[in-house]
Amino acid sequence: MAKFNGYILTEKGRELLAKGLSGGKIEFTKMQIGDGTSSVDARSMTALVNPKKDLALLNINTKGGQCELTALLSNQDLITGFYIKELGVFAKGDDEIEILYAYNISTNPDFIPPFSANNIVEIEYVDTIIVDQVTNITAVIDPSITYITKKYADENYLMLKDRAELMGAEFGGLLSTAGTKKVGTAYFDSVNKQMVVPTVQNELTYYESTKFIPISDYQTANRLENLFEMGDNYIKYSNGLMIIFGGGTANSTGYINTLPISFKKIKSITLTVLSYDNVYTATSEIIDSNKVKIRSNSPTGTNISVSYTIFATWK
Q1: Would the pTM of this model clear 0.85, i.e. be above it?
Q2: Alpha-carbon distances of 258 from 40, 286, 287, rounded to whole Å
Q3: 276: helix, coil or strand?
Q4: Which of 102, 237, 298, 314 lies at a 20 to 30 A Cα distance from 220?
Q5: Cα(47)–Cα(192) distance, rounded to whole angstroms?
Q6: For residue 233, which of 264, 202, 257 has the smallest C-alpha distance?
Q7: Taking Cα atoms as reference points, which of 302, 303, 255, 306 lies closest to residue 278?
C-alpha cells in the first residue's frame, strides 16, 4: 500500500484559505494524481509535476477545521500503467479560478496497471485537508459516477440482501470482492449498478454476460411488462401467440364477424352457441386477417349468438 508524506498547503492554497476566513468560499473541484517527482518546496507548487489522471469527487465532510474529501480512482480508461508518486487537491474561490490547494508526495508509490478484462482496479481515496474555520465550503460532486464505496456497501448491506431475497436468491455480497461466485447466489455489480446471478461457478470480480444473468429490478420489470399485452378481448404474448375471445353472431348463410385485432395465422377456433338449448351448432370460416364467417344450422333469417375463443399467431 502506498505511503504519502501528508498534504501541504501551497501558497495559492494559503491565499484561498485566508480569503475563506474572511467570508469567501472554498469550492473543492477535484483530486489529481501523477507520476512526477520534484525537489521544489511543496508550498511553491502550482501544478503537479506530471499529472496523469483527474479524480472526480464523491463526497465532502467538514468538521473541526478539517475537510474530508472522498474521490475514486479507476483504471478503466488507462492504456498505460504508471506509479502514483504525487497527489493534488484543487479548489477555487469567488473568482472561479482553479488552483492547486494542497500537494502530497509518496515515499512508497503504488503502481496502477492499464485496464483489461482481468485487471480492473478501483481505489477509494479519503483525504483530510485543512480548512480552519472557513464556513462556506463546498465541492463539485460528480453525480454520474456509478461507484459504491465500502462504507455505502456496509450501510446498505441489509437492503441489498433483502432485494436479493425478494428475487429468490441468496445475497453473496459485492461482485468486485474476490472469491468464488456460486450459481443461485446474487451479487451486486457496483460498476453497472445491478444484481447479477452466475450461470456457472466462477472466480470473476467483474460482470461478464456469458457467466452472469442480470436480475436488477428495472430489468425484471421490463421483462414482465413486455411478457404480454392485454387488450380489449385479446391477449398478445411476446413469443408470437395470441388469444382472441368475445361474442359473435351466426346464421345459416354465414355471418361475418370482425375481430378486435388482426392475426397472422389461426391455430384453432372454439365456438359455443349461446341459448337455444343446444339445438343449433356453428362452424367457422376464415375470411381475412381480422374477419371470421360463422355459419349455423339455424333457420334461414334467424341469427343466433355465439362466443368464440381463437388461438392464433401475430408474428
Answers
A1: no
A2: 88, 11, 10
A3: helix
A4: 314
A5: 34
A6: 257
A7: 306
